[in-house]
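Sample pair:
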Amino acid sequence: MRRTALVGLLLLALVAGCTAQPTPPPVETPVGEGTPTAVLSPSTTPSPPPTTPALPPGLTQADVDAGLLSRDVPQSGSGNLVPVPGSTPAPGPGPVRTVRVEVEEGVPVDGERFATFVLGVLNDPRSWGAGGAMSFARTDSADVDIHLVLATPDTSRRLCRPLETYGKLSCRTGDRAVLTHYRWVNATEEYAADPTAYRRYVVNHEVGHALGHGHQRCPGPGRPAPVMQQQTLGLDGCAPNSWPYP
């Protein structure tokens, strides 16, 4: 009996020692604490920056804006004067003067850019329409006030007769303002640093003749040359000037 009781006590002790201890609750890490987890984004390839079209060799942006496609000056072309298609309305008040812009076939010029340049000059507030005196509209119709022509040296020389231009001077003949491509590319020595200013001058000068204006002389050393002065032949001490009303 005593032995049986002893065995029972030993069994109870063993059972008590093997009872599972409660598992401690998990420790929660507060949001925002601990080691941050890296967030991976889908890999993307950045877009390349937009590129500016390369200019033709030897040309500046101003040359391109004036219509030049190259600095080549062919001595002659087909003789066929092609009107730039389309029209633009007169932007300002006052009497409207219509202009048809023509480029000789074979001249390396973008006709649309050339026409845009010409009308931009004529409708500038410093040009003949200053103060609302007039405004210029472009059309491809043959019935216009002024035909503005850009031609090769040989063709411009022929169109300007009986005036002798040698293909290096522009002229007005009848309702035509004839610009030689030679000067459109090369300007003059006095305008070498700013051929755009020369191009504005020659447009205003020859259109000025078509509007009835005659030649003027330099009013004095250092003063702006009148736009109706023959600046292509020299400035006679005056400063270059592209505008009737600078």
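The beta strands are 81-83, 96-104, 135-138, 146-151, 171-173, 176-180.
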